[in-house]
Amino acid sequence: xxxxxxxxxxxxxxxxxxxxxxxxxxxxxxxxxxxxxxxxxxxxxxxxxxxxxxxxxxxxxxxxxxxxxxxxxxxxxxxxxxxxxxxxxxxxxxxxxxxxxxxxxxxxxxxxxxxxxxxxxxxxxxxxxxxxxxxxxxxxxxxxxxxxxxxxxxxxxxxxxxxxxxxxxxxxxxxxxxxxxxxxxxxxxxxxxxxxxxxxxxxxxxxxxxxxxxxxxxxxxxxxxxxxxxxxxxxxxxxxxxxxxxxxxxxxxxxxxxxxxxxxxxxxxxxxxxxxxxxxxxxxxxxx
Length: 288
Prior knowledge:
This protein has 288 residues and is an alpha/beta fold. It has helices at 54-61, 78-81, 84-91, 127-132, 207-218, 237-249, 263-273; strands at residues 12-18, 34-39, 42-46, 70-72, 94-98, 107-108, 119-120, 135-139, 144-147, 150-153, 169-173, 176-179, 187-192, 195-200, 225-229, 254-258, 277-279, 285-287. The strands form three sheets. The protein has a seven-stranded mixed sheet with strand order 8-5-4-3-2-1-18. A seven-stranded mixed sheet has the order 9-10-13-14-15-16-17. Strands 7-6-11-12 form a four-stranded antiparallel sheet, with no helix packed on it. The longest helix is centred in the C-terminal third of the chain and has 13 residues, at 237-249.
């Protein structure tokens, strides 16, 4: 397959490094997500999990991070950015592609008691601390190319009825807190020899909205695979049915979900897609 610049795209591999579940006996699981992506002879890291299992899984899998081209962040929650300090220790100075709202000050209201203060759930360090450790931030507020056939998807429009609601997530505003839309939510579109592949970090803005954006921006009507966190655990049953219909409309051949999809939504997808369904657990590898 050739990318938009006409360059032939070689084999693409997506290796899941961190997830809630494990797909091989020598890997560890945690609530979080990270994937190592080999595309067009270059390697990229998409998210870093919480940081508890990434060092172990990288070593167990025999992977090397010192030669990666760039780090990409889907959003600013700790379960996607917590491993970044350790990664920078391995890589040294490295470009990090993210939406600027990754440092928005994300919090979660975990108690129904309004007297209990929300808990900070953002990155483990400040932007300045990361930069001192070697981070070279490339902030992007709109969808754009990372490399030939490799696109960073962000800044997409959101229809409310297609957007999952997580009322626990809040942002500080003065002395109060307001709902957090996770405005920086970002995902990846890879052009592969098998066809386009959509890799989701957490899909906080809604997988249906992301699919609408991909179709409108790239004219893509078929996807070979959808991988990663779909956030369907926060969808009502009718919204999950709408997601299944959308996946079918895109003629998706591989549905590989992980992290925030949720066990019940994952079982619904597995029943519908049968052999096309896979659990994108830590240790799983997808080759296109």
